[in-house]
Design goal:
heterodimer, A: mainly alpha, B: about 70% helix
Chain lengths: ~500, ~500
Amino acid sequence: MEEFRELVLLLKNYSADQHIEVFDSISIKQSPFWVEGVFENGYADADHQMAPTPGMNGHSKATCHDPSQSRQRLWNTLLFLDLTQEDHHDPRRVAYLCWQRLAVLKTLMAAGAFKSLREIAESILQMATAYELTTIVIETAAQLRQFCALHDGNMSGFKKYCQLIDQYENILQAEQAADDEYCAFLFLQNQASCSAQSLSQHAKEACQRLQPYADSCTTSAFVLNFYFLKLQAAFLEAEWEKVVQISNQATQLLSRKSVSSPAKIGAFSLSKALGWANLGQLDQALEALNAAIADEIEGNLNWYRLQEMKLTWLLHQSKYAAALDLAKTLNLKNKYPEWPQEQKRLYNSVLLSLADLGILSIPNRVKGMLMANCLPFRNLHLPEMSSANLDAKAALLLLQLPKWIQSGASGQVANWFQQYLEWSGACAPQSRRLETLVTTLQDIEAGQKPAQAALECITQLKNLPLDYSSPEAAPEIIKIEQIMDTLIRL
Amino acid sequence: MTDLKEFTHVIDGYKLRQVEVLTRPLRPGVQETRYKIMYHALAEGQVRNEIEGAQLLGLDVKGRPFRRFLLEFRRRLFAPLLFLDTETSPNFNTTQKANFECLRKLATFQTLVYRHCPENACILAKSIIELAVQNDVTLVALEMATFLKRYYVERVPDSEQYLYYQAYVERLRLDWLAENKAMESYQAVIAPAVKFKSTQLQISKRAHALVESLSLYKEKCNTIIFVSGYYATRYIGEMARFHWHDAIAVCDEAIRSLNDKLCTSPRIMAVFKVHKVICLTMLDRYTEALRLNSEVIQAEIEGSRNWFLYLDNQLLVSLKATKYQFACETATKIYSSRNFATMPESIKESWTLLAAYLILADRNESINSGIQLEKVLNFRLNKFLNQVPNYSKDKKGLNVPILIAQFLFLLQAKEFDRAHDKLTSLRKYRVKHFNTEDGYYRTQLFIRMLCSVAGTAFNKKLFLKKTVDMIKTVTQIPKGHPDQHFKIEIIPYEILWQWVANCLD
């Protein structure tokens, strides 16, 4: 118990308890930000409304109104959260635990508490090595090296840690080079003047510079940046087979490691999905997308975005029943955070529009649920041209096209989409598809029969496939072809 | 409020009743967790070993539940350890406080990063990076700058901020690497001296080569750790060659360099000053040595571990300088300090040895301190004579002053048989550990002189006759050259020779 006593006495001598201002279970849930963060979204349960218990940590019980004070206390609380309910092997959890312990280790070293030091350091080193946390390995090994040199006089231990540090310094160099290259690429990408061609060239050159490291360094940190750069080059040159191939390689490399974060693997699965989608293989794309969704944390914003993508792709494949099932599941997700309201309303409106068009049959009970959260999709009015939610407005207007054409207002809609193209900054392939639509609408306005114009539009769109690589800029939740098809049927 | 809301995602998933701070007092009438109960039992000294710990919890000491409990208990101690009260404690200076603050923030920061709270991580990184940079807490500054660099190119693109932090990252990476190399160099030359036999010349050569390789970074890196590691490697190299003047010059250069940095801790500065004290002592410049050592003591917090170590130095130098009165005052200061009891046994043992020499000085030279030294220094002669101290196992050569002191006490008490045993030990020690290449000429000669006492049947006249030439030779050899460990010759051998003679009839 000697090493425990050393720690306990250190805490006792320096009265740490006076300085640990954490929220207790009651006060944290009464603070204004908690109420805003949790309750404003309409979610509450009995536990969140508990009254304060007398006698709980006196000084931390008071509700904090000052955000900086609240923040400080929350940060402190974060270090005291019980962690047993999480997955012990989640690489992110291991990473922050290792960092916490490294900070403890260095604190003990600085405070001169040496008895527990070695055991803690060895356990950190073991975890950090297994989980490829390079900086932590070097720092911990340096602490152990110092311990061997100055306290033990253990030369063999000293040499062992020197070698380990040398080895990991090389790994760190590779990781830093990859990180630098990736950041430099992003920096270039953020510059308005940079063309896709020069970006692609930059990514390729960066990959060439990193290639020598790639032969010897296979840590997740390196692989991620290196393969992301490779992917970017392929994306920018629209080499979709290559996108699928690179994503496969990266996924295989990362999957072999137990230390890879599922979210990172998920990012490559998504690239693969986009690759397949752009190759016109939506079935395989959906398979890859499902893998990406499985790797995401259920309920976070990314997870919802991927689910929306899946919903769109199901609609593109005319798998309306499956799309409805998925929408139903997302609507019913009531754990915080919920499906973002704007997106929820848009997709619900799309499904309801399809029901109006007779394409999809929705049971009344479900319809009621969708109607409770939808946009005014039945009102025929041209939305205001403003940057807010422009894509959603365009998506909804696309669905209303048959009705607008039937009411003889094709020209107005054509003008709206013309303006939309100027405002939205949609990518080139997307713009060309919308330009085709605008021409079709203008032809109808000029007197061409809608069915004939729609048929011609579908023929022209065959040469202009939908670009799935920039899904955020695509208003085509239902493809233009499908809408034109409806027009023909009508 | 975006950053605060970010937390709701993280904390909402936890059973908040389990947010427990072990260090808080036990609350009457509340059923506390086993961890809190164990913490307080240990703090109050109610649990002294694992058996008592297991008993407290009603568990089998060898059973798996108790082992699991200990593992979890240790884990739960980590978080409070990040909250040491460095502000009100006199034991930590400003730089150290900044260090502790940075480490605590580093732990929080990384938790935020890996828990997907980037907005909070950004706020924290921005608030702590300057403190870390100002105080040369390079790892913390580097981690924060790396995050901010990526944040401003990936999450919230901002070219100006990105380029600003990119420059930071480049500089800090170099600093971190240089610091690591400097510390490795210092440790490489200091480690052999802790336990293993190593000729001083080898250390000197190694130090020289390491300093050469560090010079690559010298122009580019100026952090406290690098400067300390670099100059420490240099002075060890010089001291290993017994170039005391050169070592003093290196220490002076380091002190000047560190003085330029506002955030230099007095403790780091003290490392160089203390080594300068050693060099001055080896050159017999005791007055300067004592003056500098006093300066170091003044800058240290009274009662801290380092304060004791510097007083230990003062006691040793005073004895070497034969300033027994001053040595007596210093020893009294050490032994009467409130924190004396909290010092590790190994350090106390070193003081016992110095106390022994001080008492010998008192008996031979009559210090006239007006106090009962044995009582003040809590010195028990029998214990000193019979114990095999840990100190003797520690470093090559340091067993010698212990055996010499034991011999002198026994000689004074006319216990010739036991004194003879000590001489035998000394002779064996000399044969085993010292050879002609090792240096220690003064010590080797003095041991031979002492051993000759046995051959003279403890007769004063014969002893003086036999050793008169040897003591002349000893006098001609300067204390600092050839190699003499700083702590081996506590009182000059010429004086000890006189004391031996005084004890003989």
